[in-house]
Amino acid sequence: MGHPSVNGRIENTRLAAPSVPEQLESTLKVRYAAFLLAVCLSLTAIVIVEGWNSRQYHLRDSEVAMSNLAQTLASQAQASIKQADTLLFALVDRLENDGMEPEKFPRLQRLLHAQRGELAQIHGLFVYDEEGRWLANSNNAVLPNANNADREYFIYHRDHPDRGPHIGPSIKSRSTGEWIMTVSRRVNHADGRFAGVALATIYLNHFLNLYTGIDMGRNGVINLIADDATIVVRRPFNDAEMGTSVANGPLFTQLLPKGDSGTAVVKSYMDGVERVVGFRRVEDYPLVVFTALDKDEVLAVWRRESMLNAGIVVLLLGVLSVLGNRLIRLMRQQNNIQNELLEAQEKLIEVNHSLKLLALEDALTGLSNRRQFDVFILAEMGRARRTHTSLALLMIDVDHFKSFNDHYGHLAGDECLRKISTIITDNIQRPGDLAARFGGEEFTVVLPGTDYVGAFLVAEKIRRAVQQTDIKHIGSPEGIVTVSLGVCAYNQTAQSQPEDLIGAADKALYVAKASGRNMSVIAN
């Protein structure tokens, strides 16, 4: 405890109240600081909210633009394919009604050539028989032994009896080597058997030229994708990507299951870039138009605006910070003396706390001392009586310790006691247990909530641990340091005072020592 005069001065300093002017000045400073803080927080909040609203506006505006673009391109694709499909429908009707005799093919080929010239997007019109052989084409191409039975569209119509148009994957033309889209219809004999295929091919450049003319930024994309998730045409164009499946991409896993058109912000399956997208199915045909702008490019203008606004706010906050810093300096100067006094008070409290701990701790072993043990055992016996719970006590004595001291010296004896106290502590792991030095070479352990069986097991753990430490002791029959232990469980009827419980454990310890030492004995 500190000297009374020092304690009195600390107490007086802590309780002394500042004068009214000082209180008023301090209150004004605190209010001014709170006002500055509120202004700073308000400005920051306004900038954040406005910035977030602006960001959402830019994204939503881009989504609307992509939705409109997807709708426009879907209509364009539908119109281009419809024109080619209309020619095919008329061609199939002519073949099935007029027949497919060889003498009719020269006139048919002239007709196909004329029809192809009417539509700029048409690459060619072709007719194949049931074996895939070329019968007529609009390009006047002559390919000896040419056969297209291996093409996807031919196999499809050969195996499917439906009469509707079929759009196949993008391929390279065998006659010109150009990338084309195929639109085909089945031709039947009069009895319904497969008679061949009528095919219209559309230049992919017809779509690419249109897509390239649209400003999509540096990293935007436009895709025309088949219902089987394969890419028909993509801008920017890359030969290697034609026919690539995007079945696992967000368009087919997340967006199309919810509807035939829409917008979203998703990460690209092809290149991992996050984009603002719009999509729409092509009416009457198994195609989907997919348009997308790079999200980073969409938000580039928003970032510049946000940085400008943030700069203005930072400038204002800087001015306010200068004013606030000056105010804080004044407040710090005012509080320095008071802080120093509080620190001195805290140090005195820490010293008092340390002195209290020293008064309850054994200086040699670091265990609780006899004073702490007496307080603890009395409290735990009272708790056990109130709650009707068990309580056990161990009394521990180092065997032949006097001869150990006589032979090895008191310093070695002190070290021996420290080692044994460590062993005892290591073997009682519960926070509610207490290990104490009872006196000399005698220790005690209080085990709340433990009966005599559990206490005996703890006693044996300690005894074996000491034995296994193998501290040499020439004066012991074992040749090493050992301990004897008395174990006693609290009996509320027979033991009303701590001395009764301690005495019972001490008697058990006496029996252990009289019976040869290095053993644990339970009190009767």
From TrEMBL:
PROSITE patterns on file: GGDEF
* EC code: 2.7.7.65
Outline the extent of the GGDEF domain: 389-524
Give TM segment ranges: 32-52, 194-214, 307-328
Keywords of this entry? Membrane, Transmembrane, Transmembrane helix
Which Pfam families does the entry mention? dCache_1_like, GGDEF
Q: Which reaction does it catalyse?
A: 2 GTP = 3',3'-c-di-GMP + 2 diphosphate
UniProt-listed CDD domains: GGDEF (cd01949), PDC1_DGC_like (cd12914), PDC2_DGC_like (cd12915)
| Domain of life where this protein originates | Bacteria
This protein's name = diguanylate cyclase
